[in-house]
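#onboarding

Welcome to the new folks! Below is a worked example of what a typical request in this channel looks like: someone posts a single protein sequence, and someone else replies with the predicted structure as tokens. Don't worry about understanding the tokens yet, we'll cover that in week two.

Example request:
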Amino acid sequence: MFYKIFYAIIMFSIQCFIIFYVIISCFFMEERNFIMESVENLADMQGDLRGIFFDIDDTFTLHGKIYACAFESIWTAYKQGLRVIPITGRPAGWADHMARMWPITSIVGENGAFYFYMNQGKMCRKYIQSEEERKQSWLLLEQIRERVLQEVPGAKVSADQAYRESDLAIDFCEDVPALGKEDVDKIVSIFQEFGAQAKISSIHVNGWFGEFNKLSTCLQMVHELWGETEEEVRKHYVFCGDSPNDEPMFSFFDYSVGVANVMNYVDRMKFLPRYITKSQGSEGFAEMMSILLSNRKE
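Example response:
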């Protein structure tokens, strides 16, 4: 009899714990704006669409490649006169190429360190920090690099670091065997110990000194180039992304979209996109663009 009572108490306690866990989880999911609408609802977008901001890795790409459907969609948007603007953590060297060769209006790189654009066939570059500020930052970033490589086995400096001007990128799964969550968190904590910002993308931890991020530079660029207000940007542009370093953008735009693989990071994010695609990466991006461009035709 004693064992039966003890067993019943244990089972009742487990059931209570499960109910409590579900309630708490639902609360925090709601706090994180967990409920995302189907991207098909983007067809109901109010007001005129002026442009598309989008992340590159695992948003515009899939399995490390830009699918034809995604690249063709930005060509179509560009030809229709929409502003097409990547907002990426990728380096200045890549951004220079993209600004020159891709069908885009401008580009924000290194998580907001700068924006580049072409004007009458000439490259224009705007850095958020002065050259001296960037030099001083590098002295500390070098110290962070040494700490990370010493304390996080398997982590490496990203292969594209040679083309960066303002941030340090630590590779945790692009060209190295994928590191665990604890290792990624350790990389972030080392950056933060030095007072640096640190953001997790789908492949790197990017760290830098300065108050800029993807959103702040995006808003500065739109105001300086086209004289638009924050409210105009919020209502007349769409942003598409996939990972924690896109959170500032997700939290700001009325029309923010996550490709399906954003679900890999919901436990790391407080602000999630309003809409979500059915497909991942390039295919999800093309799915979103098809809806936006079809809506314009109508």
